[in-house]
């Protein structure tokens, strides 16, 4: 891919640094603490640091997720068991791998846009590649699901309750990804990626506070306010680096 630097590398790097600081502060926010003593209607979280030591085993009616995230009743309180460090580490690793693929998703399109001598009949605008981009994702997702179903001997674990929300989330993502193509055409990846990969985290954090109420406590609210402010400032500076030269 050809280099497409912003007008001001200083502003771009400074804004990116603020975005990274904001991301680090987001990672320091913790969910609300569980009640110390069981009480009717309360929820308590038990962290399983080693699932094997707990000798958890699935019944034919339970999936692996249901075993590792089991909800029971203790003294009238709802108790939820969660995976410990091992499961969290696997989740972080898979998230990093997913992030690498996500970061490379536009590379084939931009290579064709940047090299008209090699691809003389290919369009130069990003919107022309949206159908092939989504169709490739659809084919890949279908192939993975078929393979998973074969691996599970035609008994895949499917949560029926998330079917419609998943379609709704996919629709929102499709609109956002289309906007991402347009943003790349007008701003370049050096500007769009720091903005688009961090601002959704701010939106998700607001959902955690006002809807799911996962984030509670004065300390977390202060950290959240600082993280959002720094992230928004950094994203704004990154955007300005495209048009302002220092």
UniProtKB/TrEMBL annotation:
Superkingdom per UniProt: Eukaryota
Molecular function terms, GO-annotated: carbohydrate transmembrane transporter activity
One GO CC term on file: membrane
TM segment ranges: 12-29, 90-111, 131-151, 163-183, 189-209, 221-244
Xref: InterPro entries: EmrE-like, Sugar_transport, TMEM144
SUPFAM superfamilies, per database record: Multidrug resistance efflux transporter EmrE
Record membrane topology: Multi-pass membrane protein
Localization, UniProt: Membrane
Main location: membrane
Keywords carried by this UniProt record: Membrane, Transmembrane, Transmembrane helix
Signal peptide: none
Family: Belongs to the TMEM144 family.
Protein name: Transmembrane protein 144
The organism's taxonomic lineage, starting at the top: Eukaryota, Metazoa, Ecdysozoa, Nematoda, Chromadorea
